[in-house]
Amino acid sequence: MTTRRIGTVLALGALTMSAGTFQIAAADETHNFSANVGVVSNYLFRGLTQTDDGPAIQGGLDYEHSSGFYAGTWLSNVDFGDGVEYNVDFDEKTFDVVETSNSPGYELDGYLGFSKAINDDLSFDVNAIYYAYPDGRDLDYAEIGGSSTWKWLTLGLAYTVYGQADDAPGVPSGEALYVEGDWYYYAGLEFALPYDFGLGIRGGYYDFDYNDGGNDYGHWGVTVSREAGDFGTFSLNYDQVGRDTYDDDPQFWVGWLKEF
């Protein structure tokens, strides 16, 4: 079960598959443990590449309780490229270029949440996630969020409650300045198609607390996926950012995911 991490990526056009879980039953309680591994030709998060348009190998471990509580961790390589570093004044919400810096090599996330179905058509999810870059500098941040799903429509939001960049003299370019007070809004549509195909349509908007909206952006995308039994799930994806402050060229990428 990969509700939190895959739920986040799903709004961006990733793929999911349930190949099986390891269960422990005690009285009326059930504990589910699962693992997942995936490969993507470009790791895009909320419309922006996290691997300098290169491939990524990803994987995670998840726990789910029958009550709806879940927790997990997820790992991926990243590459924000060599770039400028910013001297940030969060009181004035401005920044100046000061020097070059190097990218971290990997991202390690930890998350927990509670997910519940109200009826056959309506469900909700509340969660918290910490994004860590252990070999990077002042890039970690944490969010709380929630979403609601009705049939094929999901609406959600996330709020940044902590960011190491709040107290940092600068952060590398290629990685947005995630600081306390940022909001991210997203929506997704998911449809089952014949022959085990799936269609996902998504969009999101990032409202940053710094730079007076100068770096806010919207994005959208489409995914066509195909479940292949024991071979996992394959997908073809399109993503687009709607602001030329970032790379606004169309992004096409492929992915594969298998859950154990």
UniProtKB/TrEMBL annotation:
It holds the Pfam family Gcw_chp. Keywords: Signal. InterPro entries: CHP02001. The keyword Signal applies. Residues 1-27 form the signal peptide. NCBIfam families: gcw_chp. This is Nucleoside-specific outer membrane channel protein Tsx. It comes from Thiocapsa roseopersicina.
